[in-house]
Specification:
This protein is α+β, with helices and mostly antiparallel strands and 144 residues long. It folds into 2 domains: 65 residues, OB fold (Dihydrolipoamide Acetyltransferase, E2P) (Beta Barrel); 64 residues, no CATH class. The protein has 2 helices and 5 strands; from the N terminus they run βββββαα. It has a 5-stranded antiparallel beta sheet with strand order 3-2-1-4-5, with no helix packed on it. Strand 2 and strand 3 form a beta hairpin. The longest helix has 18 residues. About 12% of the residues have low confidence. InterPro entries: CSD, CSP_DNA-bd, NA-bd_OB-fold. Keywords: DNA-binding. It comes from Streptomyces lasiicapitis.
């Protein structure tokens, strides 16, 4: 195996399981495959900085042991899901607003998920949305 190399993901198709990395050094794109990812594949997005070991595959340079260098925590659930952290109710605003209806909250949440992490699958969106809506109901943040 060659030494550790850094680069940015040019594109990665989570469904097909492959993509390409632009290495910091060199001008040839490096092939990446989902089997070589260290983190969950949905975290690998276009523009993400990664470290990897460069190998020569049958068709050219290939990355192995691909690890994200920096993960934005704003779009991630904590390890272990929502139960892994304590969520406190927001402080009361100066003017009390009624809690939104669950349908409105669900629609807004779906749009937020699509806007923030475009590579989520429909099933992933449904799972996250159901978990967040249950939490919102339990906290009284939405009305039925």
């Amino acid at each position: 195996m060659a030494g550790l190399t850094a680069g940015k993901i040019l594109r990665f198709d989570e469904v097909r399981g492959y993509g390409f990395i632009a290495p910091e050094v060199g001008d040839e794109d490096v092939f990446m495959h989902a089997n070589d990812l260290v983190d969950e594949k949905y975290l690998y997005q276009e523009g993400s900085e990664v470290e990897f070991f460069m190998e020569m595959g049958e068709k050219g340079p290939k990355a192995s042991h691909i690890r994200l260098v920096h993960q934005s925590t704003s779009h991630q659930l904590p390890r272990g899901g929502l139960a892994a952290r304590t969520v406190s109710a927001p402080s009361a605003p100066d003017t009390e607003r009624p809690a939104p209806a669950t349908d409105d909250f669900t629609r807004d949440l779906t749009e937020a998920l699509l806007d923030s992490v475009g590579s989520l699958t429909g099933d992933q969106i449904k799972q996250v949305r159901a978990c967040v809506v249950d939490l919102a109901r339990a906290r009284g943040w939405v009305t039925s």
